[in-house]
Structure formats: structure tokens, C-alpha cells
Design a protein that fits this description.
It contains eleven helices and eight strands. Helix 8 links the parallel strand 4 and strand 5. The chain has an eight-stranded mixed sheet, with helices on both faces. The protein has one domain: Arginase, Chain A (3-Layer(aba) Sandwich). 37% of the residues lie in helices and 10% in strands. The protein is globular, with a radius of gyration of 19 Å. The termini are far apart. It catalyses: N(6)-acetyl-L-lysyl-[histone] + H2O = L-lysyl-[histone] + acetate.
Amino acid sequence: MCFRLNSTASADQSSMSSGTDEDDKEDEAAGGKFTAELPIGRDRIPIVYRPEYGVRFLGLQKLHPFDAAKGGNIYRLLKTNGLIQTDGDVYAPNEITLEELLAVHTQRYIDSLKWSLNVAKIAEIPPLLFVPNCFVQRSYLRPMRYQTGGSLLAARAALESGLGWAINLGGGFHHCSADRGGGFCPYADITLAVKMLQSSGKGIERILIVDLDAHQGNGYERDLMEDRRVFILDMYNYRIYPRDQHAKLAIRRAVELKPHTDDEEYLRKLKHCLSQSIAEFEPNFIIYNAGTDILKGDPLGLLDITPEGVVERDEFVFRSALERSIPLVMLLSGGYLRSSARVIANSIVNLRDKALLPTVQ
């Protein structure tokens, strides 16, 4: 069952400049500034990707189960299926800037990423601590900054294109908060997207975060603890990382799953709790964190959802938004099987075939 949990209340090493505690306070007070350089329109498919999403550092990425080339693999499969014809059909994001990052992150946290030891802990790849930080910036953090920029661009596309949806073939770094990274998540793209939408002047007053990654989304939950303009539906395996009890206070509707939950139970709980959440909160924007670490056999998610279950899950979330004319942005988040890319591509093609991606033929 679901239950209510109420809150108690091109950049490289040199570009991430140092600052003092006083600078941190000024940045937090100013709220940062989001750029909006790339035009949004109906002439493109609102899918966001660029080849720079791929993480590569001399094979060390293979020491983590995360598929560092997942976005590129999905992109190629979508081309094969005819959903994307040319590279010009989709949006290619800019790398997020330091100024944009400081809309949420503290200067102290940004500075901490100049130390390879700290990045190794976030990426969960211990040998990274021996790699010079200039290579860490270029090969790991820069791709993550492109993906973070992609999440902001996708949110803008969902809101401004008039199509009502967008998909970033990356992002969903839900374990990262303003002052702490973890779980392969170095930048708080979900919090950044929320702040950008709230300051857009487009009347986005009620944002529903639907987090269906197998892990609790503790990063943005810590950031948004006191923000009643955000409703968090988080559905996760409660026996795995991060088990963040403090962050749980931000969840408005929690769906805690036992290991090896199957399709029938998972989909039944999702359909009931998502419908409840939409009816109660009446959101005018949805951020959908669509992790595929729920798949059976995933070494970190430990759930037993089939590929068909993932397809049905995504279809239900998109249909729920489309039927109510609620703009939705989808982020990929976790997924640690090599087969995950094909499952995601098949799900996106199914959304097209079910007419849940307006204008995509």
C-alpha cells in the first residue's frame, strides 16, 4: 500500500572557481540564474541527447555496473526504429554552467569536486582517486554536466514546445543534493529543474515528482523538504541504499517495496498511488524519474519487474499526464543491466505507437 509521509516543516577544473562561506551564502540568497539559449519549438522531437553524455575514462567506468553508454545505445536504437531520422531532429543541450549550478549547489560543494577522492566516492569507483582531477573533470564530470544541462533543456521543451512531453536520454541524478553527491550522482539535476520551472514565469506552481527508480530519491528530497509547491511520490525498494530516514520526511506519498516485488504488485500499487497523488495535488507539471534498475536481475535494484512491466509502467505514467494535459519530462536515472537500453528504447517506441508522444509519427 502507499502511505502519506508529511514534511515536518566548457567547464573544467579551473572553471569551478573557489569561494568562501560568505560566497556560499550570497549564492544561495541570489538563487543563481538559468540561461535559456536554445530555442524551443514544434520543429523537433522533444528528445534530448548528445554524444558527450558518454562517460569514458580509460576503461575505469567498467568497474561500476552503470552502463556509461546507455544514452547513446538508446539513441541508436531509436534511430533504427525510425523514431529519430537525423541528429537535427532532437535537442542537443549545452553543458550546464557554473552560474546555473550555483542556483542550487553551494560553492563549497562545487569546489569539493576538484578533489579526485571526493569524486571517486560519488562515482563509486575507488581507483578514480588516483586519476588526476583534470581527467576526472573531462571524462566523468563533464558528461554529467551535459546530462544535467539536458535535464533542464528537456524540462523547458516539455513546458514550452506545446507538445507536453520531453525525454532526456540521461540525467535523473536523484541522490545528489545541494551540498552532497552520492550513488553515481554528482549534480542535482532534479532540484535544478524544479527551481528553473518555478522561476520560469510560466505559472508552474505545483510540481509532482514521480520517482520510480528502485532507490529512494534522497538528494532532491533533502533539498525540497520545506517546499509545499512540490509533491513527491517515491516508489522504491526500502531495503537497499540509501535508506535515508531524514529525507523520507519530504515524501508526500511513499510506496515502499520489498525485494523481488513482481509486475502484478508493482503495477497495481503504482496505478493506485499515482492516480491518488494527481487527484489530491492537481499538478501542472510532472518530473518523471524513470529508473530501469527495477528490472529483474538488476544487481542493485533487487526487484523482479519484467521488460513488459517497464513498458506498461511508462505507458501508464505518460497516459496519466496526457489525459490531463499535464506537461511531463522523463529522466532515465538508474539501470544497471546492459539490456536496460533496449528496454527503454522499446518503451519509447511503444509510447509513440500508442499515440502518447504527440506529433511523433
